[in-house]
Every structure is written in structure tokens, then in C-alpha cells.
What does this fold into?
Amino acid sequence: MLKLKHWIKAFFGFPKSQVNGFVVLLFVTTLMLFSEPLWRWWMVHSPQDYTADRAKLDSLVSLWKADSVEGQIKTSVRELFRFDPNVAPAGDLQKLGFSDNLSTRILRYREKGGKFRIKSDLLKIYGIDSAFYDQLLPFISLPQQITPDKREAKKYEPAKHASAVKKAIEKFDLNNADTSQLKKIYGIGDKLSLRILKYRDLLGGFVSMGQLKEIYGLDSLVINRLTQNSEIRDDFTPVKININTASEKQLSSHPYLNKMAKALVSYRFQHGNFKTVEEIRNISAVDEQLIGRIIPYLTVNDDL
It folds into this structure.
């Protein structure tokens, strides 16, 4: 022990009073480190008495065996025969294997006006196991499913035909339609109907059904329905913009001119008024595809 103290004092440079404390701390730490493994070793090697636990296990096993034997006896006594759950008495239900509680529930269900129409209705009774139901399925005197009466089905055929005829919509003028007419088309609600009218006003009217594809939110199915139920009259003339007098702001308000309004005004300033609408082809900023779309909406004379 003295050698250990001298070594600690020489190694750590502790005074004598601190060396004693360090030795005590070292002893306590060592004891704590090895106490748990020592306790575990003692528990493993010490004799254990499992008599009480074994007695409990034996009692549980005996109860389980008793229940198993009772279940086997009930299964062997059970009879399977055809029955109608709407009229079968409690005695017959119990012979089939229904417990007293299940038999009572079935009788109460019938007393309250409940009726079993198909075989699977029996599963509505709380507590009926699906495996037990599968065993009884061939013996239940009820149909598997209810087939509709053909005479009842025929009653609805004329009404359905009349309804389809009633829903048929005559073609309306797309350029004069209001929101109520547009909303008759399946797939068009308040928002889409207002959006169609707003775009029609910005354009100055539709000159082609293909312009419906330019409206945000209109899918191909709705466009097809709208095309089938509306038309653009042959005598319709769209609102035209005079490219010789319109300002850049007025030109840019049109959906087709917003990107070329400045070029039109610049060309007009440099070369004078347009003599024909076709002269816009001389503007390099205008592509051929856009020209075909915009020409119906342009004029060089307010009198036209």
C-alpha cells in the first residue's frame, strides 16, 4: 500500500492528504466496475427455486387441455343441416354450432324486424366467426345474391331514354353565348364560363373552334363537347383593330399582338400608314403562323 501511495505521489505530484483521498476513490471506482459482473455471476451460480412457477404453468396447461377437450366434444356433437336463419328456432341454431349468445342475438334481430335476405347477411350478427360462416354457407337456405327483377329494370328504360333526349342541347352561337349556356356543357362551371367570355372579349370574338385550345383550363374533352354543342356563324365578323390609328397600348391589349405591338408602331412611324393588312408580313418580328391568326382581327380602314 505504501509503495502504491509513493508511486501515486511521484506520478501525479499530489500532496500526502490528496494521495489518501485518491486511493479511496480508486478503490470505490474499482468496486463499482466489478460489482455488476460479480452479482450476475452469483445469480447464475446460486440455486433457484422454480416450484411456484412450475405449479402455475401446470395449472394453465391443465385448463388449456380442458378447454380443448370441451371444444372437441362440442364439435363432435354439432349437426349440419339446411336452415333458414329467418325462421330457425334457437334449438336448431344451437345444434348447428351457434353459441347461446349468438342464438339469442339472431332471435332478437328477427324480433326487431330484421331479415336475412342473402347468405352474407348472417355476418351482420356480431360475434359470428368467418371460418364458422364458411362451414355453414352450403347449408343456408338463402340466395347468394339478389338478382334484379327484369320487369323492374324495363320500367326505367323509357325514363332513361327520355332523360337522355331531354339532356340533348341544341347548338348555340358561341360568340353570343352567356355563362348559363356555357355551363350546360359538362365540365364547364362558373370559373371556366367566365374565363371563356373574358378571352372572347379580348380577342374580339372567336373565328375558329381551334381558339378554344388557347383558354387555360379547358381540356380536350370539354373542348370536344363545346364543339359538338356550339357553332361559329358564317356571317360573324370579329371586332377589328385599325393598325393605322391604334396606339401601342391598344394594340398590346389583344392576345395576339402583345409581343408585336411595338414593332407595328415603329414600322408605321418609319414607313407611313399600312395600305393593306397584308403589309404586316414586311415586319421581321412577325412569323407566318402568327400572321394567319391575327389578320382576321386587323383593318386599315375604320369604315370596314
Remarks:
- Confidence is low (pLDDT under 50) at residues 69-77, 164-168.
- The first helix runs from residue 2 to 12.
- The radius of gyration is 47 Å.
- Residues 176 and 205 are 9 Å apart (CA to CA).
